[in-house]
Structure prediction request, 1076 residues.
Amino acid sequence: MLDLLTDLASSPIAASPSFNTIFQNIMKGLIFDIKHYAIHDGPGIRQTIFFKGCPLSCWWCHNPESQSSRVETYTKKKRLDGRLFEKQEKIGYYIEADELFRTIESDTIFYDESAGGVTFSGGEPLMQPQFLGEIAQKSHRAKIHTALDTSGYASQRTLLKVLEYIDLVLYDLKIIDDELHRKYTGVSNKVILENLELLNQSGKDVRVRFPVIPGITDTSTNLQQVQSYLTQLNQIKNIDILDYHDISRGKYERFGKENKMGDQRPGPGVTEEIKQQFENLGYQVSIGG
Amino acid sequence: MNQRIEKLRNQSLEAVNRITSERGMLVTEFYKNGKASASSIPVQRAKAFEYILSNKAICINEGELIVGERGPEPKATPTYPEINLHSVEDLDILDSREKVSFKVDEQTRKDYEQVIIPYWKGRTQRERIFRHLSPEWINAYEAGVFTEFQEQRAPGHTVAGKQVFEKGMLDWIEEIHAALSHLDELNDPEAPRKRDELEAMEIVARAMIHYAERHSDKLREMAESTQDTQRKGELENMAAICRRVPAHAPQTLHEALQHYWFIHLGVITELNPWDSFNPGRLDQHLNPLFQKEQQAGSIDRDQAVELLESFWVKFNNHPSPPKVGVTAQESNTYTDFALINVGGLDERGHDATNEMTYILLDVIEEMRILQPSSMVQVSKKSPDRLLKRTAQITQTGFGQPSYFNTDAIIQELLRQGKDIEDARNGGASGCVETGAFGKERYILTGYFNLNKVLEVTLHNGTDPRSGKKIGIETGEPDSFQTFEALFEAFQKQLRFFTEVKLRGNNIIEDLYARFMPVPFLSLIIDDCISNGQDYNAGGARYNTSYVQGVGIGSLTDNLTALEYHVFDRKDVSMAQMMEAINSNFDGHEQLRYNMIYETPKYGNDDDYADKHTVKIFDAFYESINGKPTARGGVFRINLLPTTSHVYFGSVIEAMPDGRKAHEPLSEGISPVQGTDRKGPTAVVQSAAKIDHLKTGGTLLNQKFSPSFFNDEAGVEKFVRLIRSYFKMDGHHIQFNVVDADTLREAQKHPEKYEDLIVRVAGYSDYFNDLGTDLQNEIIKRTEHETL
Prediction:
């Protein structure tokens, strides 16, 4: 059964937001990592749960292993005493909400002390709305602060359903021009922009995250468009600027994925300059989240 | 720092360690001339002290504001032949070894050959001790099951309490007279012995006053002959100060520092007490004087900093006296362990942070020297500002100050039966050891090699290195049908070796009480005077003897590997495991790989492994805690290694966790190097599973990349991490900020640095998982971030 599900999950309909609801009662969540002492994914000390599967395929993706909605394998290579050990390792595993919640809850002392909490990231958590809803609800009921780190690519209905249990949304805004958005992320931004407008109305705590990708998002046209778009959204006050780094190059090699970014690096001072621009418009801006 | 301090600091850093025979010769002359031989042992010791202080060279360094050196010049380190006698070969090793050498000149060698060795051979405390110890003790000691501090150094380990800053020698002499007047030879059979001890105390108090006066005379002489009018004024002032203190209680900041320094010199000249004495809660002691003077306008902040920095240099001028025998070659920690405490609570239980706390933190940051070491006491009442200020210093990559949990320290002391005010006035000293400052003798008796006990268990009582039977027979390894049976055998061995250790400790404690009283140290620790009893004979208000457990992280991983693979999964048989470790994994590389990478490990908040940590802790605790010592004290445990995890590793062959023969063990309660893969929250969760409050200190080391602190939010989260650990009753945590060299090492030996997380951009990743280019870039960046 699991095989069937994973096959389905990676098929084109997996991107359709209603997909998961069909299997709501039998699916566990598919995640690929849990990060403790996560300190860049929202306020305080957090645990970040990385969901596996993403409808987007951004060129600069930091977690290329998060894109596929199926459990993948790769060859883990480790050197010990000069000898190379190779082992087939799985990326991603299914986990029940109860078990995941126990892990989340185990760090409560840190959340309490630091006003932290749990962040659902990925991948795209909204691709598993049923599971996300369940784990977010459990956390929320336990008075653990919940953050959703999302691309926004999901149906309104899905978003609204989950939102009830989410205290903070970390919302990626990348490119305004739809043509370019399709080129660099693989999907149209129509639903993404609509959802952000919806969030703007919802009264939820939202931080927009803008990744500075050299030659792609940091062009003067895109910057202007992003800024003028955001000024229409009167409830958005906070912006995190994420600077691009080719940290993930090693990952692309390790997992045998194609890296379209090559050796791109941001020019010196670009991130600071963009921060300044947003600040001039009256936003609270932080670099790195 | 100003020019004067820069100069003094450089002089201290550049001064070469050398052995001086000055003290050795004086103490030999004193005993040889036999004038005191009719006196009681305490009086003999007191007169020896007096003889040394009256005849040793007075050293006053150019430009310094606080005076007094233990040797004839900075870093000239005396010897204590009455305790341990260096042979000519020892001196040669000290002179020529690569790490932390001590130069030995021709005259010193001659003094040793012709005077010191011929007199002391056969008469030293060390020889006396070894004559009394059992063959079981010797076997275990030689195999590296434990070490023994007191075989080479006198029992010290205590810290100045506030009374040291509130009283002078003349006040103590008055107390001695009062105690003498209360002696009742009719009803107290101990009275004659008390009289001897009190007389000895008076002799050393007067000797100390005289020693200060000798400095005063020399300072006046120098003032008269100098052409420099500014220095002349300073020297005159210093001469006046040395007339007042330590005879009287200090009235100014300058007097307080000079006063303490003379007392410090007294303690470390009398004998070589392990873990050098220190001024304890320095911000508490100094702040009232500083505030008074500041209000009167007689001192400003800069002047206070200058005095304190001059004081700091004095500690750094005094390396720890080197040991003899095999350790002369192997041991390379030769700092003493003066640990300045700041922050914490006052005796009424209020936050004690004050202006002096922050001044001292500035001094610590600016001086960046090995000694004195420093720590910050953090209670739940301490302001965040204190932690944030300290984090700024941590970030610079200087291992100091370390962070201590005041609330845990107080509970530990209360559990041991101390009064609440004494507990609040306490702190930690040495590495992490809890003590009631000014009121407790809390000696460390030696490190205990927990993993060696498992190795001996796995060889049915035999040490595989020597083939010698050093333990008891608890069964061949393949006879254990369950993990519980194996653990029970381990526990039996553990009880056997701890008993051997404690028996030895009691013999040694008794020998020090009888043959090596320390009247000077007794003067300043409550209640030796009123009890008429020496510090080494149980005269202090509280007496504790610690055994320091080492390698609990490694032992957890070893037991976990055995349970997981041999008993639970049964994918490795005991015979295979034994063959693999007996052959140092030669031909068993895959098995070793599985032990390292396919086995639960301590430090990841994984109960499969961590339950063993708790079991080991409980077994160790139960075998030691609460047993009585020879002179009225109680045995307790703590978990700290200093550098013994390296030595202890060197005497153990390969172990089930994949560690190869002779490699270092885990230190303190930290995970085995590189095995904590879930970040610092998981590490502190694992570490907090043991009951810290039942110890007298635990040590947790964490590696941190400097980039974690480079913005306000990062510092804030770092502070919250510490607060969380302390909420869980964690005793201590210190942060080694990773430097570029460490990162280069990690590139070469990734398996040892699996835990290394670095912040890259807006997020962090394991260093090992980064591509080489990026690793190189981070190395470059780290070089900028640390100093």
Remarks:
- The radius of gyration of chain B is 26 Å.
- DSSP finds 32 helices and 16 strands in chain B.
- The interface with chain A takes residues 589-590, 592-593, 596-597, 605, 678-682, 685, 708, 711, 713-714, 716-717, 720-721, 723-724, 727-728, 750-751, 760-765, 769-771, 773-774 of chain B (CB under 8 Å).
- The mean pLDDT of chain B is 93.
